[in-house]
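Severity: low
Component: inverse-folding endpoint
Summary: output formatting inconsistent between runs
Steps to reproduce: submit the following structure tokens with default settings.
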């Protein structure tokens, strides 16, 4: 099974990195490891642990809710936007499937976006430029001001 990581973003692009993952459970820890490894050289001031947790939740959701009749992949990209970090997670699922749930204390699912909502400066879902859906989160003050 092949995976892909883009470690060499263009100088003209605010994109710091990207990875393409198969929609299988093993991709979740792989996404955590790769993000941690490839964000480190940029020395963000934000909590990398919080970012890794949010990526883990969004990749898990992408795998759970992504749907296509054709073989498909999950794409994770991270960008520097001024002093903020933006992470996008793309999948071929339907935008209507992305919703903030309010699970009961005994529910075993439904907390992913609640975690993202509590840790990120903001988050949103939109149509993906690859087709399907992109869920993004923004972490403010990831780098000191210029």
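Observed output (run 2 of 3):
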């Amino acid at each position: 099974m092949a995976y892909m990581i883009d470690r060499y973003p263009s100088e003209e692009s605010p994109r710091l990195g990207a990875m393409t993952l198969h929609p299988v459970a093993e991709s979740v820890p792989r996404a955590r490891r790769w993000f941690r490894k490839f964000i480190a050289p940029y020395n963000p001031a934000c909590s990398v642990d919080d970012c890794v947790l949010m990526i883990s939740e969004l990749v898990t959701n992408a795998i759970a809710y992504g749907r296509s009749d054709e073989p498909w992949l999950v794409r994770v990209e991270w960008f520097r936007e001024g002093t903020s970090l933006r992470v996008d997670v793309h999948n071929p699922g339907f935008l209507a499937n992305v919703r903030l749930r309010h699970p009961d204390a005994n529910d075993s699912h439904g907390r992913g976006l609640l975690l993202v909502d509590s840790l990120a400066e903001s988050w949103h879902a939109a149509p993906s430029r690859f087709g399907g859906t992109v869920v993004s989160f923004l972490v403010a003050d990831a780098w000191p001001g210029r």
